[in-house]
Amino acid sequence: MDRLLDTLPFLAAPFVACLVIASLHCYMGLHVIKRGVIFVDLALAQAAALGAAVALAMAPVVCSESHLHHADTRTPLVTEAHLAAQLNLEEDTPTAEAVSDKESVVSRAHDHAAHEHEHAYLGYGMSLFFALLAALLLSFGRLRDERIPHEAVIGIIFVVCAALSVLILSKAPHGHEKMEAMLVGSILFVSWQQVVAMLLLYLILGVFHFVVRRHFLEISQNVASAERTGKRVRLWDCLFYGSFALMVTQSVSIAGVFVVFSYLIIPGACASLFADSFRAQLVAAWAVAAGTTVFGLAFSALADMPTGSSLVSCFGAVLVLSAIAGAFIRKRGDRT
Amino acid sequence: MLARTNRSRFLLVVWVTALLAVPVQGSDKLQVVTTTTDLAAIARAVGGDKVEVTAIATGYEDPHFIAAKPSYMMAARRADLWVRVGLELEIGYEELILDGARNARIRVSTPGHLDASEGVLRLEVPTQKIDRSMGDIHPLGNPHYWIDPLNGRIIAKNIGQRLERLAPEHAEYFREQTASFQRELDERMFGPQLVAKTGGGKLWALLLRGQLDRILQEPGQPALGGWLATMRPHVGQKMVTYHRSWSYFAHRFGLVVIEELEPKPGIPPSPGHVADVVERVNAEAVKVLLMEPFYSRKAPELIASETGISVVECANLVGGQTEATDYLTMIDNIVKRLSTAFTQ
User: Fold this and answer.
1) Residue B82 in 3-state DSSP?
2) CB nearest B69 (choices: A61, A64, A305)
3) How far apart are CA A259 and CA A35, in angstroms?
4) How many angstroms separate the CA atoms of A12 and B273, rounded?
5) pLDDT tens-digit series, residues A73-101
6) Separation between Cα atoms, residue A138 and residue A240, nearest integer Å
7) pLDDT reported for residue B338
8) What is the pLDDT of residue A117?
9) What's the CA gap between A252 and A267, in Å, rounded?
């Protein structure tokens, strides 16, 4: 228990981030389940990851000459001859008071880090560009005669994007580890600035979806009848997958592919076991997501396990428990 | 109704107080948090019973990357002193942990933040522009500097001096501890008799100036012992390494790294490069392929089956192998395994 209390201050930002993610993902998840396009999230997330990889390849300069010069003047190179002179002195004065205790701990790493921050914008831009491109492909991939099933288009986008990222990152240092980092994410290290930025974006997306909710719901529930009533399905699909891409690019960069997928699908799946109307399902999904977030973070803190994977595992457990509970309730319902 | 809100307000106050109170507790020992286990081992040796040392990474994982766990930030939160390897080895995670911990005592450029690489001997410092196409090149030089015992000695001095500054009341103690660690290191390096006769610092100075042999030939001088004596017969031996992480060890003991399995630092072995390595190993009759235990053995074993080279796994981090229990046994372990492999 002490351990949990100790960890609480660090879990505040991740906790709020999870709730923000849950707010929109649970809602979108219900749509995705109704449409039967479960893996659309993986496809878009992978496209975003591909964009990040492309950005990495596009911004090749790690360290400019001016930066090198900078680094060198701050930390003069110690040569063996220099060290030999120091060590000779050492015999006379046991520990090295001869060597002045210079405070040269300057923010060298931070120069480099600032450089990386510049690339972060490029990375985000490229991620978004590729995710939106994939969203466009998805909305046009829904062919009327269904010669290629929509699920196949999603799968193709996923594997091709994944393969391309592997190709690009195979030429980048520690590319494999970067790929893994994108999958598992680092929700534990989320900063309050990131949380606020995500909250603002999700508010805008949320308002947009609230305004046009009827149109999306109609298409999600029955495409054929929506088309018969003369709805411009392709346009609405473009908007749906476009907003989806915006949402996923943001959340994947913070929480990683696995966590984002869990927030999207599992609360919705649990909710559809217990509730029928869309509204009731949404409320149930939010409750499941919030509850599981608390359990997942507490587990991560108590067992000192990686946070993202703890959350995903807890979601899995919650789904199994709700399936059992659901079966039990239905059985009792049948009996009475 | 009023009573109820009062009660909940009271509970809230209790909670907040509990939250604020918890991090303050703890022992009166200085809390030292290091990124790697090697730094932790040296900090333990130097700090003795006046410090409590925690390492963020374990010895059996790649120090360039670690998976985020809550305990890292808790450790950093409690820390009085944070020690990093530096030279951008921890660039992937140090800032995240320090930002997350919100501990003003260990911010960069404060006395509670120590870059252990201050004043160490650095190799492979690039002199021209670097870009990603060259692989994982560190602009400040190869960051695996701790594997040179000379640098181990300097790290101990750096940590000792910083501890003195943070806890001046134990200054004398830290100075003694540093001196005794350095003496033990010198004895393992040159052999105890030689150190007793000539003095560790002098021996190092002679070694660095290439004058050690002259002293050894003087009459009445005890024979060279320790790591240097063990590695002496193998001076000039060629080897292949997995990552560019053995440059310092090779430099210190006169070994030659002719090729790395990674075509560029941090980039996994590719088929074409493996073929090149096989060719060079055969052409130059290289005996040893040296690698850290956390890398995949697939490519090394392929090369071994093609050339008969012996694959030697050596931990260059404390805790990476059972023998490597502290800094000195870690170096011991590398020296033993390598000299055995070269002798075969």
Assistant:
1) strand
2) A305
3) 21
4) 47
5) 445 677 888 888 877 766 544 433 333 33
6) 10
7) 95
8) 59
9) 18
pTM beyond cutoff 0.80: no
Q: Which of A93, A76, A128, A113 is nearest to A242 (CA)?
A: A128
Residue A188 to residues A205, A306, B153, Cα–Cα distance (Å) = 25, 8, 36
- pLDDT 10s digits, A107-136: 344 444 455 556 667 888 888 999 999 998
Q: How far apart are CA A56 and CA A123, in angstroms?
A: 7
Task: Please tell me if residue B251 touches chain A, with a CB cutoff of 8 Å.
Answer: no
DSSP of B307-344: H-PEEEE--SSTTSSTT--SHHHHHHHHHHHHHHHHH-
Q: What domains are there in chain B, each with its CATH number? A: 27-121+135-184 (3.40.50.1980), 191-224 (no CATH), 230-343 (3.40.50.1980)
Predicted-complex ipTM score: 0.70
Q: Are strands B30-34 and A61-63 parallel, antiparallel or unpaired?
A: unpaired
Residue keyed to tokens 């999600």: A220
User: How far apart, in whole angstroms, are the C-alpha atoms of residue A96 and residue A79?
Assistant: 17
- For residue B69, give the nearest of A64, A77, A304 by CB distance: A304
Cβ contact A105–B205 (<8 Å): no
Helix (H/G/I), strand (E/B), else coil: B115 = strand
The secondary structure element, H or E, covering residue B243 is: none
Query: What is the pLDDT of chain A when averaged over all its residues?
Result: 80
Q: Which residues in B lie closer than 8 A to residue A184 (C-beta atoms)?
A: 67
CA distance B208 to B251: 11
Give the pair of three-digit tokens for residue A254: 């913070």
**Domain spans of chain A, in order of start:** 2-65+112-329
Per residue in B143-174, pLDDT (tens digit) is 999 999 999 999 999 999 999 999 999 999 99
Coil, helix or strand for B291? strand
Residue the block writes with tokens 């900090």: B43
Chain A: residue whose CA lies nearest to B93? A189
Q: How confident is the model at residue A220 (pLDDT cuts 50, 70, 90)?
A: confident
Residues of chain A in contact with residue B160, where contact means CB-CB under 8 angstroms, are: 95
Contact residues, B window 294-333, toward A, CB-based 8 Å cutoff? none
In chain B, which residues have their Cβ closer than 8 Å to the Cβ of A188? Answer: 68-70, 73, 100
Nearest-CA distance A145 → chain B (Å): 44
First to last CA, chain B: 85
B112 in Cβ contact with B167 (< 8 Å): no
Cα A7 from Cα A16, distance rounded (Å):
15
Contacts within 8 Å (CB) and 24+ apart, A274-279 = A274/A322, A274/A326, A274/A329, A278/A30, A278/A217
The nearest CA of chain A is from the CA of B96 a distance in Å of 6
Distance separating alpha carbons of residues B74 and B23, to the nearest angstrom: 9
Q: What is the CATH number of domain A2-65+112-329?
A: 1.10.3470.10
| φ and ψ of A290, to 5 deg | -65, -45
